[in-house]
Design goal:
This protein is mostly helical. The protein has 5 helices and no strands. The N and C termini lie far apart (about 70 Å).
Length: about 90
């Protein structure tokens, strides 16, 4: 028992528990290679991804109906990271 006359919560109960990370990591299967990974490794191979083709077809259909995502603005990118503009001295 530790000396705690104010009886404040110290979190000792939680800190004494076993760590959950290793057991959670062991529960899920390891990540396997996907078509995207194979394309990155072997770009010369001619691969076909049905799910990606369906997605691209759906996006094209939505754009043709005018329901697609808005285009990215070119103006907002030129102001990123510039910071505040310096204040010009006023003539008095």
């Amino acid at each position: 028992m530790t000396f705690n006359p104010e009886r404040t919560r110290t979190g000792n109960k939680i800190l004494r528990q076993r760590l959950k990370g290793p057991s959670m990591a062991a529960y899920y299967p390891r990540r396997t290679a996907t078509l995207k990974d194979l394309r990155a490794l072997y770009p010369e191979l001619d691969t076909w991804d049905d799910d990606e083709e369906d997605r691209l077809e759906h996006v094209a259909l939505m754009k043709s109906r005018g329901k697609g995502a808005p285009s990215k603005s070119k103006e907002s990118k030129k102001f990123v990271g510039k910071g505040k503009k310096p204040v010009a001295p006023t003539a008095t």
